[in-house]
Design brief:
alpha/beta, 7-stranded mixed β-sheet, 4-stranded antiparallel β-sheet, 12 helices, 38% helix
Amino acid sequence: MVKVNKNYGNLKENYLFADIARKVSEYQAAHPEANIIRMGIGDVTLPLCEEVIKGLHSGVDDMAKAETFKGYGPEQGYGFLQEAVKGYYESYGVSLDKNEIFISDGAKSDVGNILDIFDKDNTVLVPDPVYPVYVDTNTMDGRNIIYIDANEDNGFLPLPDEEKKADIIYICSPNNPTGAAYNREQLKKWVDFANSNSSVILYDAAYEAFIVDEDVPRSIYEIEGAKTCAIEFCSLSKTAGFTGTRCGYTVVPNTLSFDGFSLNKLWLRRQTTKFNGTSYIVQKGAEQVFTEEGQKEIRANIDYYRENAKIIMSALDELGIKYTGGKNSPYIWLTCPNGMKSWDFFDLLLEKANIVGTPGAGFGENGEGHFRLTAFSNHEKTAEAMERLKGIF
């Protein structure tokens, strides 16, 4: 008789965003006239920049000619894109070897798949509130998960606690969902903690392109000692609008070894066995992200989203609603007014203002009473949404 992975039974029945989609769909069906503004799921709205489109077209053209056609590519990515990523890191002072860079179809996939190289007996530490994928993927494997509190008292940036030691530590900075970002001194404490306890940090840097503060690292490898304790994940989804195109990269340093094994070699072995690589055409588009003109164009798009964040923050300031994020992140994490619970605030916004956001309770116990808005809409809808918000308070 077939036996299933019973750990799936320990998952919540629905993924957070599936619940949101269901509630919005039901409301829209009952109120077809409603003009709903969606500020929940962190999907981008601006099209791919011109340089990326040129790169994609060049990839398509290559596939149309026998002399440049590509079949199976290297599972870890084509050298031209690895070199481009390497150069990008060098632009802010981080030196990497090309073989430490693994091209993927996005950070979300790699954050889950990296667990293949770790034993199921490892204890996992995650902050609360937390991006659900960190918890769910470990729950699927049956690992023991412990939590560290992220809250208003610590600015949603918890620091190491000697009473909460773990083998695998998740850090997302700038953070999803809270938008908070660790400075160098704070991140150094986590690196020292991991090295002293022989732990590995899984560092999600998906929103590094939004960082403006000089004291906030773009990469954990800007911190001394990180190459012996950290794996870094990054994505072009928010950086360059690749949410539907799918491309990211993971950095596994050659100096990262545990239990007598090189994690770089283990990850390479895993990828060459279970992954056939990212599309050549997509990688040609991604290469252009890292050119001088490509960087100029994607920075313009990111600045556009930053303006949306300013519109949101200005409205919250006017209403006297507390929040974090919005400066180094496209997310604004607000405290629900009048002591409201997260899902009650969701219902209020949907029904009274036709605005969709993300209830903080979906990110963990400490998310209750908080709410996430994203800056990924357009200026007009963002401004309209904030006027509607001010109209109900």
